[in-house]
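Question:
Now give any protein.
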Amino acid sequence: MSLNDAISSLKRGDFILLHDEGKRENEVDMVVAAEFVTSAHIARMRQHAGGLVCVSINHSFAQTLGLHYMHDILSNSQKVDNESKKMIMGKAPYGDQPSFSISINHVQTYTGITDRDRSLTIKGMASLYKNQKENKKQEFISSFKTPGHVPVLIAKNGLLSKRLGHTEMSVYLMELSKLSPVAAICEMLDSESYAALSVEKAKTYAKENAIPFLEGKELLEFSRVH
């Protein structure tokens, strides 16, 4: 399926499957626009994908909220001694720095882990982006708590020109779809091989469930032209 099919699906509030690249993680993520997320979306990610359900946001939104990468937070923390700081990840085996920031729960959640709770947290981030109030940082602080059950991923400034992760690709897709640059993403895993779901199996799942399957290289080629 084409990029246009993926954009149409995202605009409807439906899933797409997004493959990064064989030389990178070589993983396929389920992706949906955060502004349309429901409890059913989270349940499907949990049951059919099985990876970590995260919310990815663009870099400028993260700056507005005062969010930073977790590796920077830990590196600058006086509570972490120099010996322990050796644990902080520099680059992953595939060459990128992690995009993880803090993890959050919406204040209206209970445990934060249920499908209903996680959908409330993720959709709340998209709602916050659309919020017209001047001080979004204060709104963020009053609406969310940390630590929580939804990891926040911050896309690199410059998106695909700087990093080719699912974080950047999912945010870029939201922007192409003229949606809030906030996405829910989850890696697809294989309970038979105990590894990431293969591209072939992911494509079969996509075909059987009428979900657009998008190659990251197609998205990268589009971004280079446009």
In short: The chain has a mean pLDDT of 95. DSSP finds nine helices and nine strands in the chain. The longest strand covers residues 144-154.
